[in-house]
Design a protein that fits this description.
This protein is α/β, with parallel strands linked by helices. Helices cover 32% and strands 17% of the residues. The protein is built from eleven helices and 15 strands. 37% of the residues are buried.
């Protein structure tokens, strides 16, 4: 057989085999990826957050109502008398009270704003004016002292002092209790500014009692403290509020007792009153009668300021209304008891002979004074 023919034949056979293999082999599909069956599962649940126990009710033993008193007189007297009030209010309402005397007028205001739902405070007009604007503190009552809903600041000097008028106090050393005190500092500061008088060194004494003592001891040349109208031997004020409103009180002598009675001023047998031939002294000088029985013979009034709205009893801005009503009713009732005189009614305490409802608008005059001077709580 021709070799060439054989080669061609073999080539055709191989090619045919390849064609048959390509056509005859079963076609295979690419494997289809299958998803694993989805098993429904519940979303994991978070453990419930622990709930805080509810706050104890205001006035409960666990959450007592804070009764704040500004430190205008001796803190021990305030604490003792304040506890008498707290006990009476607790008995009448079933609530729990905690008496507190902050370190200053400003600290009292700050405490009311920091604890708006559980504080009540006895604060002067200036403190109230600032606190009401600062955080909404709300007035409930004002003090009444022997029929007066107002009081005054008095400028006091040694009885043998050379000073005779306010103008004479230019450059003189000034003693006052606290810059947050309405009668002790703010009103005199405004009156000095209006009169163009610039006192000299200013000495903060810590309270009205301490200011009188500083004048008595010659540590300052003059002091500013609260003034209340003295009583006659019959127990009536030496002038009435109506007379004052009518402009009938025009001389310094009308604010003082008769001069001839001053030589006989002394504490009574129990040391509770400062009497001068039956006249009773109610201004700040009477507060040091036991340690300085001759205070009237040594310290005189140089001048008396314009009238100031009386001190307030005010509540924190978020104080519970129902609880407030209970306390207000209990306070009105307490003011009619003898225990009142051993508490805030004492002349050594704040000398409130009674209380009367007060409105916020009554203190607009004080706010105007604050705005006019730019006074702030920081000062």
């Amino acid at each position: 057989m021709n070799k060439r023919f054989v080669f061609v034949l073999l080539t055709l056979v191989v090619a045919a085999s390849l064609v048959l293999s390509a056509c005859g082999a079963p076609a295979t599909e690419a494997p289809v990826a299958t998803e694993a069956p989805v098993v429904a599962t519940e979303a994991p649940t978070e453990a419930p957050a622990p709930t805080e126990p509810p706050m104890p009710a205001v006035g409960s033993p666990e959450h007592p109502i804070k009764v704040l008193f500004v430190p205008s007189v001796d803190a021990n007297i305030i604490t003792t008398g304040g506890e008498v009030m707290a006990a009476a209010l607790s008995e009448a309402t079933g609530l729990t009270f905690e008496v507190t005397v902050p370190t200053s007028y400003a600290a009292t205001i700050e405490e009311m704003c920091a604890s708006p739902a559980d504080t009540m405070a006895f604060i002067p007009g200036l403190g109230y004016a600032i606190a009401s604007q600062l955080c909404g503190v709300d007035v409930a009552f004002k003090a009444v002292r022997y029929g007066y809903p107002v009081y005054w600041a008095e400028y006091i000097v040694a009885r043998d002092s050379k000073y005779q008028t306010l103008a004479d106090l230019e450059g003189a050393t000034w003693g006052f209790g606290d810059q947050g005190s309405t009668s002790g500092y703010m009103v005199p500061a405004v009156e000095f500014a209006a009169a163009g008088i610039t006192p000299g060194e200013q000495v903060q004494t810590g309270g009205h009692n301490q200011t009188v003592t500083a004048v008595y001891n010659g540590e300052v040349e003059f002091g500013t403290v609260f003034y209340s109208v003295p009583l006659t031997p019959e127990g009536a004020p030496v002038f009435t509020y109506d007379d004052y409103l009518a402009g009938k009180i025009t001389t310094l002598e009308q604010y003082e007792i008769p001069e001839e009675a001053i030589a006989n001023c002394a504490p009574d047998a129990e040391g509770k009153k400062l009497l001068c031939d039956g006249y009773r002294i109610l201004d700040a000088r009477a507060n040091i009668r036991t340690e300085a029985p001759d205070v009237m013979q040594k310290v005189r009034i140089l001048a008396v300021s314009a009238a100031i709205p009386n001190d307030t009893m005010s509540f924190g801005p978020e104080f519970p209304a129902e609880v407030r009503t209970q306390i207000e009713e209990a306070l009105v009732a307490f003011a009619e008891t003898e225990a009142w005189d051993a508490s805030i009614g004492s002349a050594d305490f704040y000398g409130w002979s009674g209380i009367a409802p007060a409105t916020d608008a009554e203190y607009d005059m004080v706010r105007a004074m604050v705005e006019a001077t730019g006074y702030t709580i920081e000062e």
